[in-house]
Amino acid sequence: MNKYITIDPRVCNGKPVISGTRIPVTVILDQLADCKSIEKVIDKYPELSTNHVVGVLQYCNSVIEHTELEVE
After folding, report:
1. Domain map (residue ranges) of the chain
2. For the structural domain made of 5-65, what CATH number should be given?
3. Which of 24, 40, 44, 51 could join 35 in a cystine, given CB atoms 3.0 to 4.6 angstroms apart?
């Protein structure tokens, strides 16, 4: 985890969110896929900074790095 991501069972059913907000990590990922730039995501969510969006990407990388997949 990093300082930009919070997981709290009382917030958004325990889904990872941007710290201090109720914006789920998945929403930021969807916005990045649609907007294709951090600046456009921040335009839609002015309460966020570049560091927040980069924190989302770092969090996702960490989750993927620590996931073991079974190949059949």
Report:
1. 5-65
2. 1.10.10.10
3. 40
- In this structure, how many other beta carbons lie within 10 angstroms of the beta carbon of residue 2? 13
Beta bridge partner(s), residue 17:
6, 24
How large is the average pLDDT for residues 48-59? 96
Alpha carbons within 13 A on the beta-carbon side of 42: 11
**What's the whole-model pTM score?**
0.85
- 7-37 pLDDT, tens digit each: 999 999 999 999 999 999 999 999 999 999 9
Please give the Cα distance from 72 to 63 (Å, whole number).
22
Listed in sequence order, the residues at least 6 apart from 24 whose beta carbon sits closer than 8 Å to its beta carbon are 12, 15, 16, 17
